[in-house]
Structures are given as structure tokens and as C-alpha cells.
Design brief:
- The structure is a single chain.
- By secondary structure, this protein is mainly α.
- The protein contains eight helices and two strands.
- It has a two-stranded parallel sheet.
- The model has no long low-confidence stretch (mean pLDDT about 85).
């Protein structure tokens, strides 16, 4: 996800009149209060890099994006607005309504290439739109099991190794075509 967000910002930066620098502050994941993590990243970004815009990613957690805004994003924005000048106050939210893995399915050919498979999309179970798959992570795991059966133990692909190369290579227009 990180590389997709970064590439999106890079694409947008080409439309800006001024130069834009991007810096990674921290990937906020794991346990802990969302608002506290946003405040921490905002302060760290401002202090370390003079960050003007903070990009925050969160899953919808089986809620709608409106509920996620109400319970996470809006409280974080409100907390930021109450801080002193040593915080980045502009926050852009990326909310995934589907599981994160759904975006891996936006380009099946690229996914199959990274899986090192010649199996057909049908053989792998990739027969529906990414938006129509209830559990994309489980589908990809099963596809990897099928694909890995044909590979030597040395060449087998793990789920965790798919995110970065696909995030760096996927056509952003294919992601943009997905409703969520």
C-alpha cells in the first residue's frame, strides 16, 4: 500500500507548480489508539521534515467509509487542529473498504507474473472482479498454494513478498477503476 500511496503522490506532484519532496515518517500499524498515532506521525513529520501533508492509511474495519471517517479520521483531524504549530495539520486519508489484498487483484497478469505461475486465471480462482470477492486474501493464499505446487521449494512465493513489487509496478489507472 505504501508504494501505491507514494506513487500516487508522485503522480499528483507533476501537476504542481512547486517542487515537492516526499519523506516517509513511519508506517502506523498494530495496536494503539489511531488518533494518538496520527498525532505522533504528524509531529515527527513536521519536526524531522517540515511535512505539509500527512497521508494516513486505515482499513474500514468492516464499516463503511463514512463510519470510518466518523470514528477515526474526523477525530484525528479535530485533534490535529487543536495542536500547536509544530504539527502537520493537513491530513489526507486513504481508507480501504475492501481488504488490502483486493488491490493485488486489480492486475491479474501482474499478480500471476509475481507468483511465477503459468496457470490460468480460472485455475487460480481469479474469475470475479476484485470488488466481488468476499475474502481476497484467502483467495490469493489458495492461488499461491496451487501455483507453488508447480515450483521447486526454492522458487516458492510467499504472500508477504507480493505487496512491494506489485505496489511498485501496478498501473494506477487499474486501481483507479475500482470503485472502492
Amino acid at each position: 500500500m505504501k508504494s501505491i500511496a507514494q506513487r500516487t503522490f508522485e503522480q499528483v506532484s507533476f501537476e504542481c507548480e512547486k517542487d515537492i519532496d516526499m519523506a516517509e515518517v513511519e508506517i502506523l500499524s498494530g495496536a494503539g489508539e489511531f488518533v494518538a498515532k496520527v498525532l505522533q506521525a504528524s509531529k515527527q513529520g513536521w519536526c524531522d521534515y517540515g511535512t505539509d501533508i500527512l497521508c494516513v492509511h486505515t482499513d474500514a474495519d468492516n464499516k463503511t467509509s463514512a463510519q470510518t471517517y466518523q470514528h477515526k479520521i474526523d477525530p484525528a483531524k479535530e485533534a490535529l487542529s487543536q495542536q500547536n504549530d509544530k504539527y502537520c495539520k493537513i491530513m489526507v486519508a486513504i481508507i480501504l473498504v475492501q481488504e488490502t489484498e483486493a488491490w493485488l487483484l486489480a492486475d491479474i497478469d501482474l499478480l500471476k507474473e509475481e507468483m511465477l505461475t503459468k496457470l490460468s486465471s480460472q485455475d487460480l480462482g481469479f474469475i470475479r472482479s476484485p470488488e466481488g470477492i468476499a475474502n481476497p486474501k484467502e483467495l490469493i493464499k489458495k492461488a499461491l498454494e496451487n501455483s507453488n505446487e508447480k515450483l521447486s521449494k526454492k522458487k516458492r512465493v510467499e504472500m508477504a513478498t507480493l505487496y512491494l513489487p506489485i505496489g511498485q509496478a501496478i498501473d494506477l489507472e487499474k486501481l483507479d477503476a475500482l470503485p472502492s
